[in-house]
Amino acid sequence: MEESDPPFVEFYKNLFDNQKTNDIGVFDDVEECEVPTIDLSQLHQGGREAADCKREIAEASQKWGFFQVINHGVSLDVLEKMRCEQMKVFKKTFYDKANNHCNLNFPAGSYRWGTPSATCLRQLAWSEAFHIPLTDISNMGGLTSLSTTMDQFAMMVSNLAENLAEILAEQLGHKSNFFKENCWPSTCYLRLNRYPPCPVPSQVFGLMPHTDSDFLTILHQDQIGGLQLVKDGKWIAVKPKKEALIINIGDLFQAWSNDVYKSVEHRVVANKHRERFSVAYFFCPSYDTVIQSCVENSIYKKFSFREFRQQVQDDVKRLGYKIGLPRFIL
Ligand code: OGA
Ligand code: NI
Question: pTM of this prediction?
Fold first, then answer.
């Protein structure tokens, strides 16, 4: 426990005291495997290669809701710089992070840790994060090396997100400008995650099982491992692959594709000895954007992104967890 770590044990003392060793099963019989890897350099070759590559992207999104991409166009240099800046900012003291966001002009509430609503250990996330709306990065004023790097990272990753979204739409027979028109870098979010070493990794998650409330997420993780996802009803562990970015389908794409693409549940397992870092880019539309199925016989009623977010927030407040898409079934 360093002074940069959030005070999990002190703050959630009651949960620890009341715990009757309740295993959350994260180490039971969880196989490690690689999610489908797609080489995006094929897209530039045109013809058959490009067409095959697009099909692979759509197929992985249907069967797995997850895939990883290599030769993705995001420079290794930017990825490394992002990681380095991320490590630096989390090294600041907890006091600094929680009370003045390290003087970074981050918007209020962007530093998060643990789970304020947790009523038992399994609801406690052993992690800390800066969750930043991208509108705010350019407003951060002071050009710190962190904000410059986040800006560069977001720019490159947003291109990738838009390309992938358009490919996924095209594979459903929809050549549309929907994503260009509704998802801008300024409507997206960046989340810097840190998972500190955890003394009881069999009892708490690094991040609880959830689906993402966006169109798609691009994740860059380090080599520690811990990300798990549900495939055919079983949890499997994602084997980290250097230089790859992990892509997962979010709830909005599942609704837009009328359940063709799957927003799959995933979680992060805590690690007893080593800290872990990841950066997630959430590809989101503006709040007024209306999401509706691109085909007939829609499973879900149409909703604006604002309504969706509000519903998720209300559920989390009232029930302690997110219901998500099932709330919008017709
Ligand atoms: C998330 C998420 C996974 C990870 O931030 O939504 O699922 O590996 N992160 O950090
Ligand atoms: Ni997630």
Answer: 0.96
